[in-house]
């Protein structure tokens, strides 16, 4: 009875522990022991809003971490989950990890509805462990702007506010949280990434006011949508239908271009896709397909017979103007062979000459072989082309006459960046390339040795086209040529090695101990032994990884030595130290450079006053930083502050004890002899000064020494029976804690032997000390 009551409560916990700690064997043992329990029907209660209890099970999502040192167990970090719940609030709607998840390509995403491109959302993150010493942190991203800092609330959850950027066009949207390792001080930080899926409701409507069309005449209609940017419009024509059409985004709206081919009552059906999906079937499924739109048109014959031509795109160049282009035209029945016909863009007389057609011969398929010589540009959307015999129109036709394809500007946009005319690309990265010029839409552009990645959001027009390119990691060319078919356009992309600042953990330093990364030496380093030399070495294999390329590292070393009082001893600067990635890099063969640093940097080979000649409590400052001119930002900087620490200092000290109380010991017993307070003694002592081991050049308030004391050396008493004597003493002195005082009044306590009196004595009293 007891087991039957506790079994439904403990079984999910036992299952999680079995899967996490003891492996699959324990899982099958549990199934054998409790076969009647239905595992698939375990209810999962969503986390309350906004209060989430601590017992809410933490969902498992993709978790990543920085490379761990060898002292951290990999098994202890792979299964870590930072969040037990995450709430995302837009307007008055809450979306939670525990209930608003949907699978996209096998990966769970937190979906949320948005209405604006720059939607503002409130984030409430409930960590698995709430620890003020290891707070949760939201990693920055180019896809959103963090408006508030991630602030703990009631020691239960963290709250922040973010503003998204261009939600319709952004790809791979996610929130990444990081937290320091709570189990190891030197362990890596943990990160958990929550994939986000913005969804929106998009409507599309088509209500034409005129449904009458003419064969061969292109007509443009407006489409109405509440989110124009979310409607996927390729701008490409359909082919072989009764009414060909295309949909394009023009001037901030959606335009439907129709071109009828057959007379009668004809219909078209628009099946449009969206860039961002929406939920169907009560939120269980995603859909990108808008409801189909069907529209009927009445297609009539043209007043003039329309003659179709086999070539719809003609390039206006020197060859097409002088020699002409061979075309096949429908038989107009009244054509005269070996006759030249004018082609104009208006029916009335006096139109501008667009082209000339010279009829050569009839073909067996009831068509005519002609020469077409073009003189002006024309677009099918502007008007028809009228074939005239003199000024008398005979037929109509339509085609595009465009200038020769010319690329005037090449722009590149790297991930997370803006468009720039700098055409440098890096191996292994994916970039967007925009070509600007004339007549670009018809050109079959090709990029040498670079793969074109299909993109649904590509922009294509006569004046601009955008391609998404994947540059291979192993590309061996310095320039990627752009071809129009098989013709080199003269434009291209420059392949440059990655040149990004890497964290300075590849720079290591040793000054008598094992080499350590400079990034681990923060703050002053108190070193109690002699510094024979300070040596900097470089781990070239720690720069590039398989998927993370950084390239050459340009460093500057600024060296400065100071004495204990802060006075400058010497200063040196080493500029343009080039560290190249090691042989483990995929681009190692392309980093070969005679300037690459191959050896270590020894400070003693640069300093005139060596490190082992420096006085106590001297400082050795070495600042390692990236050369800002070689990168787009300042890079990283790390300063090593090495302090020559001393625990004990030996020195000769002269002081003036005054008003000493002495006690002399003779052979017959003890006899107290108190000196006059007006007497001033002179003490010369060899003293040991002790320093605080946790502070820099901070002596403790006591000293111990041995030496000579001239009692009553300066007697200010008017009597002549001053009791002067010379003593050999061992004294302990207590000094004031202020280190900046020039005049001090220490207290002395000790004993010794009177040389003149031949007696042992003890003394206690104040003194006067002067610090220079």
Description:
Residues 44-73 are annotated as: Disordered. This is Bacterial surface antigen (D15) domain-containing protein. Residues 63-73 have a biased composition (Low complexity). This protein is 5% helix and 46% strand. It is built from four helices and 56 strands. Strands 1, 4, 5, 7, 11 and 12 form a six-stranded mixed β-sheet that branches. Helix 1 (2-22) packs antiparallel against helix 2. The longest helix is centred in the first third of the chain and has 21 residues, at 2-22. Mean pLDDT is 81; it is low at 1-79.
Mean pLDDT: 81
Shape: elongated
Structural class of the helix and strand makeup?
mainly beta
Considering DSSP H and I runs of 4 or more, what fraction of the residues is helical? Answer: under 10%
Question: What amount of the residues lies in strands?
Answer: over 45%
Biased composition (Low complexity): 63-73
Protein name: Bacterial surface antigen (D15) domain-containing protein
Region (Disordered): 44-73
Organism: Hymenobacter defluvii
Keywords:
single chain, 772 residues, mainly beta, six-stranded mixed β-sheet, six-stranded antiparallel β-sheet, 5% helix, 46% strand, elongated, disordered N terminus
